[in-house]
User: Which sequence fits this backbone?
């Protein structure tokens, strides 16, 4: 099967991760168990996830001219990702995410965007040649909205399908959603985008309908351990995720989206791609960190095979 060519445009951060038995309440101090500094950022994580899932990946981002930025760049290059359009901002620092993770794998995250906030439409134009050689474009919302909108429009002009992972959650202008190949909100993001919380399959379908009425071609609502609802103009189906023990849910959505883009760029069916992405997300939550936890294609396929073999014959 040929390799997908994926263009990821988005953020790069360094994650400062504290693991603690419990997450503190406001005003409370808790004693934590460990600290680590690891590469992160939704854009960079998704680029790495796509590369580890077998895609040829180009990444467009903005980092600081500091040690965090240099480390992030080295990690991306070590993954074989094309970083020709990852620019160093002369003034702003690299993005930072302060992350607390508890023993159940739940997290709270605060991001200081730094140079990510200066990723501009001009920088996207400078990378415009990339749109001529990719099969899919993957965007998120950790960079300025006008830049995301500009990138989506450029992709549409070039006939490149766009996946928008609308994270972190925020309301979006109709002109961004209209004409997107796919949006992939989680439960919270779905609530903010549609006003409907996807607590049941029925409400998830209703929320997907709202997004499709807004001009999105396909919708995948990720529902954590429950899997994902895939809605197209022909069907709305639940695609279950394999059961795993979660250690850290940071970056699970990024694992899902990167793997999805890699699978779709290889022209798999949407349903098969969601299954592949569910398995990638499930593997990612069994390990600590965002990029550090992202699985490789062979592991994802092994989980898919193991699950198939453990199912009773029909
Ligand atoms: O999606 C997880 C990511 O969100 C982390 O790596 C952190 O950097 C924040 O951007």
Assistant:
């Amino acid at each position: 099967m040929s390799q997908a060519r994926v263009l990821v445009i988005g953020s790069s951060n360094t994650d400062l991760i504290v693991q603690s038995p419990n997450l503190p309440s406001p005003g409370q101090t808790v004693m934590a168990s460990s600290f680590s500094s690891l590469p992160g950022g939704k854009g960079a994580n998704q680029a790495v996830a796509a590369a580890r899932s077998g895609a040829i990946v180009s990444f467009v981002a903005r980092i600081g001219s500091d040690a965090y930025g240099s480390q992030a760049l080295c990690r991306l290059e070590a993954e074989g990702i094309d970083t020709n359009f990852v620019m160093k901002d002369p003034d702003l620092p690299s993005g930072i995410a302060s992350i607390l993770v508890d023993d159940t794998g739940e997290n709270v995250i605060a991001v200081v965007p730094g140079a990510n906030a200066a990723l501009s439409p001009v920088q996207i134009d400078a990378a415009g040649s990339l749109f001529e050689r990719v099969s899919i474009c993957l965007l998120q919302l950790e960079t300025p909205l006008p830049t995301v909108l500009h990138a989506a429009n450029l992709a549409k002009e070039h006939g490149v399908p766009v996946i928008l992972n609308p994270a972190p959650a925020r309301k979006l202008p109709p002109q961004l959603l209209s004409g997107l190949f796919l949006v992939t909100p989680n439960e919270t993001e779905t609530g903010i985008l549609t006003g409907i919380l996807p607590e049941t399959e029925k409400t998830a379908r209703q929320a997907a309908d709202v997004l499709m009425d807004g001009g999105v071609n396909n919708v995948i609502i990720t529902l954590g351990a429950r899997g994902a609802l895939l809605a197209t103009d022909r069907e709305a189906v639940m695609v279950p995720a394999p059961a795993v023990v979660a250690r850290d849910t940071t970056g699970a959505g990024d694992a899902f989206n990167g793997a999805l883009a890699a699978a779709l760029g290889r022209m798999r069916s949407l349903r098969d791609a969601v299954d592949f992405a569910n398995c990638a997300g499930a593997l990612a939550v069994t390990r600590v960190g965002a990029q550090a936890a992202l699985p490789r294609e062979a592991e994802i396929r092994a989980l898919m095979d193991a699950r198939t073999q453990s199912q009773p014959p029909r």
Remarks:
- The mean pLDDT is 95.
- The first strand starts at residue 5 and ends at 9.
